[in-house]
């Protein structure tokens, strides 16, 4: 968790760019339900009320007016399709709050797993009509695409990813579905009968393996190459990039169970796009235009700073807000900082742009290191090593260290007999 969580932020500086962020509304015209394990209440209708409050607040901001809206995916719940609700009516209801904004304020609808449940892949890619803004003509490919970039303000580019390009949720007739199924089945990644309803997909998965479940997905090598070219073009244009994906690209930003399958392929592109294009990306020393990565998917949210100094932020879901809680944010890019003004479940945070110079071993969030040191009772070096091996995931780093210490103690006991 970032050291800057729940900070007090002043707004003395005039921002260079301001935008609204919300993730995982998952509206459906249904009574409250629950998650698969029956441990969390999901308030389908209440989430629409939170979206309405968010757009009201954004629309009323006069001193720092919203210039764009980043909707990080899962706007409608898959129950709209599974329970055969009136999908058109649900779409109309969930899009109505955005009517407060003129067309000059762009809204970016990121593809989540629930978009895949409710709409065809052709629609999401822009090949057929879709009520959501899930595709645009990309400046590099010059074709409609579900992954694309867009200059939202002078010097600021949104880079939108399709983390479900290869997914089991893309429909029986889409070739990427079979590719995804074979990927999960190969090398023992997931040994459950995950194509059967009611199966606990996480059975037998531990540590970083927990990401190999059907409600996640992955990017193709084609999309990764496009990402590198896009970030390289941004460097040439002296632009700063905000990368948006429904699924986290790093384990440390949320629960490991909500991380893209091939995150280890994606991070080198973010850290050193030119090195990636040349076949030799640097882990720490590459030049990058990325100033933040933003995600949904993991409803409890989270945050980390990676080894290159890039902040990765997962936004909490309105779907699971309790009582009168809200869950959204206003983000400012100003004075070489990314400032998140959180509302309700979303904490406020502040990050400096990634440094030009990265020390040996990479950048570490001091609070994350301290948390691991304290919980596992280990020195700084061991904490940093565990964080590096677990993709900056504090909980997993602590679990790994405690398991190692327990095994070592057991071994010492055995040899002393």
Most strands sheet? 6 strands, mixed
Strands in their spatial order, largest beta sheet: 5-4-1-14-15-16
Calculate Rg over CA atoms: 21 Å
Give the number of helices: 12
Q: Which structural class best describes the helix and strand composition?
A: alpha/beta
What percent of residues are in strands?
A: 15-25%
Order of helices and strands: EEEHEHHEHHEEEEHHEHHEEEEEEHHH
Principal-axis shape equals globular
- Would you tell me the overall average pLDDT? 93
Amount of helix: 25-40%
The poorly predicted ranges are 1-15
How far is the first residue's CA from the last residue's CA?
42 Å
The multimeric state of the shown protein is: single chain
Number of strands: 16
What does this protein look like?
It is a single chain. By secondary structure, the chain is an alpha/beta fold. It is built from twelve helices and 16 strands. The protein has helices at residues 44-60, 79-82, 87-95, 113-118, 121-124, 175-185, 221-236, 263-271, 273-277, 366-376, 380-389, 394-415, and strands at residues 17-22, 33-34, 41-42, 69-71, 107-109, 136-137, 144-145, 148-153, 156-160, 240-244, 290-295, 302-305, 311-314, 327-334, 337-344, 349-352. Helix 7 runs parallel beside helix 8 (263-271), helix 10 packs across helix 11 (380-389) and helix 11 (380-389) packs across helix 12. Residues 1-15 have low confidence and may be disordered.
Give the gist of this structure.
It contains 12 helices and 16 strands.
Topology of this structure?
Elements lengths: L16 E6 L10 E2 L6 E2 L1 H17 L8 E3 L7 H4 L4 H9 L11 E3 L3 H6 L2 H4 L11 E2 L6 E2 L2 E6 L2 E5 L14 H11 L35 H16 L3 E5 L18 H9 L1 H5 L12 E6 L6 E4 L5 E4 L12 E8 L2 E8 L4 E4 L13 H11 L3 H10 L4 H22 L2
Parallel strand pairs: 1-4, 4-5, 9-10, 10-11, 11-13
Antiparallel strand pairs: 1-14, 2-3, 6-7, 8-9, 12-13, 14-15, 15-16
Helix pairs in contact: 7-8, 10-11, 10-12, 11-12
